[in-house]
Design goal:
The complex is a heterodimer of chains A (344) and B (182).
Chain A (H helix, E strand, L loop, with lengths): L2 H13 L2 H11 L4 H6 L6 H15 L3 H14 L6 E9 L2 H4 L2 H15 L3 E7 L4 E8 L12 E6 L4 E5 L6 H11 L2 E11 L2 H8 L13 H6 L8 E3 L2 H15 L9 E8 L16 E8 L3 H10 L9 H8 L4 E5 L14
Parallel strand pairs in A: 8-10
Antiparallel strand pairs in A: 1-5, 1-6, 2-3, 3-4, 4-5, 8-9
Helix pairs in contact in A: 1-5, 2-5, 7-8, 11-12
Chain B lengths: L14 E7 L6 H11 L4 E7 L14 E7 L3 H11 L11 E6 L8 H13 L4 E4 L4 H18 L8 H8 L14
Parallel strand pairs in B: 1-2, 1-3, 3-4, 4-5
Helix pairs in contact in B: 1-4
Classes of the chains: A alpha+beta (344), B alpha/beta (182).
Amino acid sequence: MDDSTKQVLRQIIRRIPLNKLQNMLSKWEHLSKKQLRSLEFTQPKWLLCDNLLSICEENDLSMKHVTELEIIYRIDHPAQGSWNVCQLIDPEEEAVTADLLHFKQLFKAHLRGLISHVSVKTKKHEDGAIWIRIAWGDNFTQPNHLKPTYVVHHLQTPYVFVSGLTMKHKPLLHQALVLSAHYGGIKDVHLSGRCLTALRDLLMRQYKQVFPVKHPRLLLERSPLPSNPNIQMEHAKHAENRLQMAAEAFGEGILPKLETAVYKLETRFRENGNGMLGRREEPFRGVVKFASSNLLESLKYCVSSGMASAPVTPLLSSITQKGRNYFVITDKGPGASHTPGPNI
Amino acid sequence: MSLLKPLNKLPELNTANVLLVENEELFQKKLADAIVLLENNVNVIVRLARSLPLPLESRPRIDLVVFIVHLNSEQSLLSAEASLKHLDSSYFLGKVCFLVTGARCGTLPYERLTSLKKLAATLNSPLLMTEDRTTEGVNTVAQRVLAVLRVAAGLVPMATGLYLSSLTRCTVPTDPDWQNQD
């Protein structure tokens, strides 16, 4: 083991909480049972780390093995850092029949063709997703394992989830992905969040959706009955209506966990008076950012409790309908800037 | 949208209707339960609403309108003020009552309570301070609302809502710096 491997292993151990470390190391399968038992998990972390390093040296583990530990930990705890989503477009015929091994080989070959110093490690998750860990190097430097990029792709779906990618390496990764998955192109979906499963559920519509119906019986049945016949809700019908609207816009049950929604405004400033800002020709730039630990749940509550007006504005409902949380809002056309209703 | 009028429906025998208006819908269910449990002699019907106006079809007779205002939110006060516009003026002859929660908390802006007191005073309506966190407080306020309701619904002989409210209505002292004295 060289120094850089040791440094990477130390960093990985530092990131894993002590109570999860034993479980991770047994999943890693590069330590024998006896070696695992010899480690004292009640020790302080730096001492434990030193012991672990000596065992790893004994077993003659290399960087390849060490990064495997990180990928195992990352698969179990994907909510570290922000994930961005890209969509592959224009599938070719082979895209439907692509298999994992083939994809893996092609991806590695394509990426190595594009950049000389790169280290790629893949692992198949239980749910069928392929996890790719990429450590980027330069033409003259070795791959930097301290800042890897993670890519998650479910084969036969067009979506790719990327975390920790710099602008510099973006075109390389996109090109390798497009070529190895047999697609014609790739585009940014403008969806990002910390929770990987939530992003996947939102894009693949794997949450409980509600569709407009003429007779909302189910909702009537579900609403809690007043405890006493002498207590009556005067606005019961409105409340039902609001609940239905909210459920139609955001779904029901457990909603995917998004953290932010960003609206970038490039519209003209509208005001009733004859102020300075209203007369300007150029757009008034601004950013509106909604943040919450569970944004969709919060928005749904706003609508169902009556804080927001009942037919949900398309600006909010398109988070779920279009599966994105970054929008740029511009006026429709250069001349028709008076018309309300922004263009998304 | 037409105004809510107190006398456009005939009264039923031995029945009192009370409407609780609260924008937040936090306290009104608790209060409604307490009111219904407390009263055994009279058939009390509690109606809950976030705000006025009520839907036009199936508008019931309402003997007393109670506005619940939480002092910790400005919206609560604004919503009550907006709802007041949908009441017929004859309601203010003893058929409206205000409940205030959170007045004990010292960190809240005092102007809110002042403006609410002024509002109640100009409308000749009683203003009841409420403790909404404890069951005792809820029961106490339920009793007080019931007492007002019985009179407003005409269930107490020789007393009318107008008579009661002239005794219980909120008054604001004319001294300009009265709020600094307490």
